Amino acid sequence: MAMLSRASSYLLRRSPAPEPTDSGSGDALSRARVAEVATFGKKFEEQTQSSIARENAVKDSCQQRINALDSIVETLSQRIRARNMVVHGLPDTAAVSNPAALERLVKARVDSVGPNRGSSPVFQSITAVTRIGRSGTSNRAVLVEYSSSQAKHRTYALSRQLRQQGISLTDELTPKQQQAQKAPDPDRIALRSIGFRTWFRHGTLWYLDQGVPRECKQGEAVSLP
Fold first, then answer.
1. Which residue of 16, 30, 119, 193 has the smallest Cβ count within 10 Å?
2. CA-based Rg of the chain, rounded to a whole angstrom?
3. Strand duo 142-146 + 197-201: pairing
4. What is the pLDDT of residues 10-38, one digit of tens each?
5. Are 213 and 219 spatial neighbours (Cβ–Cβ below 8 Å)?
6. How far is CA 87 from each of CA 110, 134, 217, 222, rounded to the nearest angstrom?
7. What's the pLDDT tens digit per position in 31-74?
8. Do 223 and 190 contact (CB within 8 A), yes or no?
9. Which run of H or E residues covers position 200?
């Protein structure tokens, strides 16, 4: 309506002043002007709506492309982290502050519970270790990189023995995975309420059932009696 009012004012300003005439012809001229203004306003409104529709279509197309790119970036980020593991509970002291000493510590702890000490494929597959977290905080975690994701999973097989030393293992997650993990999960809440220990691996919920790790499908734990 505001556009129509502005269009009407513009046409009325541009229209020449009517010459004096009788009332009948004057009324006809006024009606003609009103009809002209109404026609112009209708076309103007149609063009405006068409422009808005095209703009919205472009926005939707751009948003779809952004979402597709976000999905690709997330997939690549997960692939990059697929060979990495975060180790919690290792000493964070000056004695292991340099990379070489930290690497020796990690390898020694993993090797101490491995099946073939000193020659375990798990021990040999560690390629790099890095302390992560803010400096000054106690017991910062350690990021461990493996030569393959299979080697990382072999270390997961030793998690029970490592827990006896106060060491726990988790995946390195992307920011999106971390955000999803922090959100309340009904299945995780249900499993914990009946005494199961739970954890996430690759974004999937797992729980320990009589010492056996089991994957929990979405909605499975919520439906338990």
1. 16
2. 35
3. unpaired
4. 444 554 544 555 555 667 777 777 777 77
5. no
6. 10, 15, 26, 30
7. 777 777 778 888 888 888 888 888 899 999 999 999 999 999 98
8. no
9. strand 197-201
